[in-house]
Each structure stands twice: as structure tokens, then as C-alpha cells.
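Section 3.1: Structural characterization of target chains.
Under the original work plan, the team committed to producing a structural model for every single-chain target entering the pipeline before any wet-lab resources were allocated. The record below documents one such target. The sequence was received from the expression subgroup and is listed exactly as submitted; it comprises 507 residues.
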Amino acid sequence: MIQRIFVSSVQREFADERRAVRDFVRGDTLLRRFFDVFLFEDLPASDRKVQDVYLDEVGRCALYVGLFGRDYGYQDSAGISPTEREFDRATVLTKNRLIFIEAIDDADRDPKMRALISKAGTDLVYHSFAGITDLNAALYASLVEYLEDTGRIRTKPFDAAACPDAKLSDLSREKVSDFLERAQAERDYSLGPKTSTRKALAHLNLLDGDQPSHAAVLLFASNPQHFLLSSEVKCMHFHGTEVRKPIPSYQIYHGTVFELVDQAVDFVMSKIDRTVGTRALGPQAPVDYELPREAVAEAIVNAVAHRDYTSNASVQIMLFSNRLEVWNPGELPPPLTVATLRIPHASIPRNPLIADPMFLAHYAEKAGSGILDMISRCQRAGLTAPQFRQEGGQFIQTIWRPKRTVTSQVEAQEAQVEAQEAQAKLPTTDVVLLKACLERPQSGQELLQAAGYSKRSGNFKRSIGRLLAAGYVEMILPDRPTSHLQKYRLTMKGRNWLATATKGNEP
């Protein structure tokens, strides 16, 4: 919501400064998102009394800005100037008042202006200015402070900032107790399960004043998604190597970060191959999974703990026949890069107030060794080393499943269909679009340009539809097909087609 600023002064003094303030606020990228400026001279002509108009405008505005200088100005029958009337009205209405005093010798001011400045100074801190540049700088600082004080912008990190509308009563006492019990058992944490919720949150730095932070809500709320809708996790299972609809298995999980991790890990482990040994070495028969559970859990914990929670996107976990992909919104924090993840590196969590409790509950490690441990476990299991990439604002972790021969009837049929499709001819436009996606994912607009279209025609839409249906390209955001962030990525199947079948389809 845009708030109005009433800029007050005498009728002729500071005319240039008043217009400069208006133009500065309207031209500033940050301030214009929150404010507009009212100047009396911008009003159209009317038959209302001038005094009634500007006093009414004071009441309509959220902030009063007083420019006090040398002159006191025109005085009414009571000997009061419009400037003082406006200031008094703003005071009575308890408006936020920002006072800026021209930097001149006090002896040069009108005595009544000196008295007005003295009155304003009894309960306000005012700022002096020497010229328009100085005034705009002082005003900017005051308006930013106002936005911070009212919570309209925040300077704290997201996880440390108060979650709007959340109260302590929105947190689950049972979940706090369970966490404290586990933290004490796993990490010898000093607080026990009977510790009060307020004390536990304070000890973990999860309070912003008296209000639970975003991290507190994500960790312990009865319903975190009521406050942070996109904090859910979406899990999908595909029988082939590409995204294809209908999706055989699709689950959306809700809950705290701990519950999200547990549910997502269980989803993956329930879908992959496993072997059950004998009870020769004990009463419990051992179970071996094709993917190390610890590596799967590490990838999912990374996505949930280190994602960008200000994004409208959700964590996505996609299990294909040859790999597991874990997508989370956000980018690696500097100085980390995809390359440095493969060597010993410092732990630089995006959300430290979420990461710390996850460490205490033994979901994560603090030493920055989690990725290296994931790589090591996969290699010891005889798997191809995990891959990491940054793509379109998403960080993607890929864990490769064991290579295997085609054994099931479904997989054999899919392989046969893919072999037949690789021999098929494609329209020229389709080939152009495939080649455009060869180096990197392309937006719809980029594909339009590559195909030589000026707008989305029926032919263009049909080309995209054919490539998606054939599995040659896929959306990077399959659950949000109309998103303005959507891009189209060449699949492995599409790459194979280009490698084997483009000679007869060159445009």
C-alpha cells in the first residue's frame, strides 16, 4: 500500500525544495514502492477554503514532513501561519512527523519560526539541511528508518526476522519438546524437554522481540505452510528418464522442516530397489538399498535447510529410472561454487537459524562436510559421483542410480518406443527448437526468436507440444507450466535424437 507524505512549508519559501522532494521520492526505486508525495500546489482549483484543504490533506497522509527555514509566512486572524497549523494538526492526529531545519544562523529567522522550531524540538529529533541534495539525503535516511520501524522492509536475515501474524501459540509445544529431547540425546544439548517454549526459542535465537521468527515457524509451528505456503516439498516418481505426464506417483508434503525431510526421504527410499539379507548375524534382517540412505538424506536436508524461503517456488524431488534429482530455489552463497563443493570447504548456511537446530537434532553437520560425505558414500556404493549444478535460480543435486540392463516389460517397451522415435522425422521448426536448447535451457521468448516467430502462433505452440509429448524437451518447472520463469530444457532423449537423427532433418 502506497502511503502519502504531506510536505509542509510556508507558501513561497522552499518551492524548489518541495518539488525536489516530490521528484526524489517518485524517482527512487525503493521509496516509490512505499510512498507518494502530496504538494498543495498539485491540487486542481476548487471553491473550498485553502485552510480546510491542506488541513484535510494532513489527515489523509501517513507522514508529515515539515520544512522550517527563515520566514514564518502568512498569518491568519489568530496570528498563526499555515505551516504551524499543519504541524499542530499532524501532532493532534499522532502522525509520524519528520522535521527538517534549514542550516542558517538562528538570529536570521523570524521570531515566530524560532518559536515553532523550539516547539517541534520538545518531543522530536529534527535534522538540519543545507540545500536540496542535503535535504534529500536526510529525508531518505528518515524514510528508510520509518520503513524498518514499521516492518515494511527488514534488515535482518529472513530466518531471523519476525514471521508476520505468527504468535507463540501457533507453535506446537509437543514439537518443541520432541526437538529438545532429541537434541539432548544426540548432541548433549543443555536444555531438556521440559524447558518452556519461550526459553527454548530465546536460547536458539528464534525470537524477534516477542514474536516467533520465520525460522521458529518453519521448525516448530503446528502448520508452517499457513504462514509460508511454498515451504512444502513436492516429490515425483517417473518410470523413465524424463518428465512425462501423467506422473505415476506425485506427493506434496507439509509440516516442519524435520517432517519434510523425513517424509521426502521415506518417499525416495520406498521407490528404489532394496535387498533383504538373512538373520545370520542378528535378529534383524539387514536391508540394502540401491542408494545410500545417508546420501539421499543429505541431499534433501541441504535443499530444505538452505533453500531461499522468500521464493514462491518449492523444493522438488524427482526420482527417475536412472537418477534422483533434488531441486531447491536459491543460489550458492559466495564464495562457494559448484566446483568448490567437491573439495573441503567452510559451512556457509543460507539460513543459520534453521541449520543450527537441524544440526542439534542430528539432521545436518556444521563442518561443511555433508556434500563430501554424500560423494564418498555414493562412490563406496559403486555409484557415479553425484553432480551439482546451478540453473535458472535453482540449485540441483543429482544422485545417479546403479546402471542396469532393461529387465521389466515396461522398460523394454519404453526402450523400443524411444528407438523408433529416434528414427522418425521431425518438422524443421521442431529441429530448430531442439538445437536452440542444446547449450542451455531456453525461455519461450528465446525459442520464439530462434524459430523466427514474432509471436506465439498455432504452429509454434504445436511444435512445443510435440517436443514435450515426445519427451525431447521438458519444463524446468513442470508443476507451474505458465510461470514467467519457465524454461525448456533438452532431455537426454532429445540429445540422443539430435545425435542420431538430425542428418535427415537439417533445416
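The chain is about 40% helix and 15% strand.
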